[in-house]
Amino acid sequence: MSRKLLFITFSLIVFYTTCCIFVVRGNEKERVPPNEMIQEFDVDRGGEYLLLPFTLNGKTYQFVLDTGTEITVLDVALRDELGKQIGQVKLKAPNGHSTANIYQAPLAFVGKLKFGETGYVICSDLIDMRRTSGKNVYGILGMDFLQNYVVQIDFDRGKVRIMDDVEHSTESLGKPVRIGFIRKSPPFVIAGPTSDHVSPFLIDTGSNATGTLASNIFDDLKKKNELEVLTSTKLQTITGISSVESGRLPVLVVKGSVLRNLIVKKSDSNSLGLGFWSRHFVTFDFPDKVIYLHEGKRFNEPDHSDLSGLHLLRIDGRTVVAIIDETSPAEKAGIQQADEIVRIDKEDVTNQSLFSIRQQFRSATTSINLTVNRKGHRIKLVVVLQ
Fold first, then answer.
1. Nearest 5°: CA angle at 73, between 86 and 38?
2. Are 297 and 278 in contact (CB under 8 A)?
3. Which of 128, 205, 286, 304 falls 20 to 30 Å from 294 in CA-CA distance?
4. Residue 234: predicted pLDDT
5. Taking CA 329 as the corner, what is the angle to CA 324 and CA 332, rounded to the nearest 5 degrees?
6. Is 258 within 8 Å of 177 (Cβ atoms)?
7. Which spans in 20-121 are helix H?
């Protein structure tokens, strides 16, 4: 069989941002009748990656639930569990492309739900994702699987529910928002910061950022002083490192849901990540092409950016400085590349997730005390954030 070269958007981009997360309202126990629930999974509550169990040949791995990825991705460590290679695919990221192999989809299970046997999967090296997230991620569960189900995410309780449908009254689920699809691309919603800039926004649960704005919209809003430009920082993606601008939007409207002062990054397209969705109790009804949004407790919580200029990796259990933004508080404090962060204030970071560590650099605190390990020596430094 001749190899076919496919081109898709691989939107799982690891951002060093996030925001306010979370959600909750009244009596959630009655939102979904038990007889309509297929599977329920425990997930992190803070807006970190939504990790689901993926069982292949008797072994279970953590896969990221990613509505922004068209085709499910397995790490190269699982290549021997796959069959014959049937082609190649280009993976797209902000600073370029990489190529990965595609294989016939294996028989596997997401919880007790059958995956595979038809279609295909991508095999790619996800080591950078593991390092930037600090999570033991070995795959990305894409829309080829998710499109068949209703996916409900309750960030406050830390639950993901996968159902066949929602046949009962949907009033309690919140405001309905239509989902759009262009050919076989991942789903989108219509949203915008102003009436002049209403356009499709990718639904991207594979990003823990609030969202991105297409460069032409970002630049136009900046020119009109309708967006507060924040810092230019580095962005770690599956294909490397690039520089990216960020800005604060006065308002963002998604079908009657109005959010204010959100932080977005400049990109080649529009998207809404977990920093946005986690402000809601959200039900993605993919078969019926509709989302139900219910405001969460932290719907109006301020969105903060990481002020430190630090970009961290988790390597062999160590929290390592990979990049330092020029003229940033971290650089001014004397932090160097390859330093290992050992403590933040008096707390050991070994058991802290990278997400929670980054959250601390987004707080209203004016300074943070760090202890770093530099070539075997412990050094105490103060990072002044404001």
1. 115
2. no
3. 304
4. 62
5. 85
6. no
7. none
Q: Which of 250, 303, 251 is nearest to 21 (CA)?
A: 303
Contact call for residues 253 and 31 (beta carbons, < 8 A): no
Q: How confident is the model over 256-266, as pLDDT tens digits?
A: 788 999 999 99
Within 240-353, residue ranges assigned H as helices are 274-277, 329-333
DSSP notation for 270-299 = -EE-HHHHTTEEEEEETTTTEEEEEE-TTT
Q: How far apart are CA 79 and CA 63, in angstroms?
A: 15
Residues 6 or more apart whose CB falls under 8 angstroms from that of 230 comprise: 245, 246, 247, 248, 263, 305
**CA-CA distance, 253 to 260, in Å (whole number)?**
9
Question: 0.70 cut: is pTM over it?
Answer: yes
Domain 310-384 class, CATH top level? mainly beta
Looking at residue 240, its pLDDT comes to 55
Measure the CA–CA gap between 141 and 52, rounded to whole angstroms: 8
Residue 197 confidence (pLDDT): 82
4-26+35-163 CATH pick, 3.30.450.40, 2.60.120.10, 2.40.70.10, 3.40.50.10240 = 2.40.70.10
The DSSP call for residue 74 is E
Q: Where are the domains of the chain?
A: 4-26+35-163, 171-295, 310-384
- Fold match, 4-26+35-163 / 171-295: yes
Q: Indicate the burial class of 304 (C-beta count within 10 angstroms; 0-12, 13-18, 19 or more).
A: middle
109 burial level (CB within 10 Å; 0-12, 13-18, 19+): middle
Sequence letter at residue 227:
L
Q: How far is CA 90 from CA 64, 97, 108, 183, 267, in A?
A: 20, 6, 24, 18, 19
Question: What are the residues facing 203 on neighbouring strands?
Answer: 272
Mean pLDDT in runs of 10 for the chain (386 residues)?
Answer: 37 32 31 62 90 97 97 96 89 70 95 89 94 95 96 94 83 91 87 87 94 95 92 60 84 88 93 94 95 89 88 96 92 97 94 91 83 97 89
Class level of CATH domain 171-295: mainly beta
